[in-house]
Fold this sequence. Notes:
Elements: H1 6-16, H2 20-48, H3 52-61, H4 77-87, H5 91-99, H6 107-113, H7 127-138, E1 139-140, E2 143-144, H8 147-158, H9 160-177
Amino acid sequence: MKNITEEQAIKLLKKYSNSEESFNTVLNHSKAVQKAALSIAEDVKKEHNINLNIIKIGSLLHDIGRFKCNKKDSIRHGVVGGEILRKENLPEYAEIAERHVGVGITIKDIKQQKLDLPLKNLVPETKEQKIITYADNLVFGERIGNINEVIERYRKELGEDYAERIKKSHNEIEKLRGKNNFL
């Protein structure tokens, strides 16, 4: 794995941004995700060998694909981000970008919804990927919300099945944290 600093990650975001406004929007959102993810990781790291640097940098880079996607094809921003990060020789961060959308996108989701995505599982697998994905769901723009807001958002936008997937993700993170705040 190639290690990069926060400063280098921010320069990479700047390199791919298409305007100062989009750069600031993605950076501010990513910093809020980073704050939420590091807070979660602090609870988890001792018992579960969490790599805080991956959380720190992966949180900053998770939405790099947004610069190349418009609202119409925003479902692709994770895959596009993965392509960018592989081109930059950052495959571990590429997987974070690819797998962070929603609670992950399964092959079944891609087929059923006829999504314009490669036919592969885009579901977070590592603890670091799961923490960043969960933190990203908690962040609304730059504001860190709560799990009930996330559940309601998914229920309204995508239905009860997705709300249940969010609950499952929450329970998995709470278990890693050693908390009993299960849904």
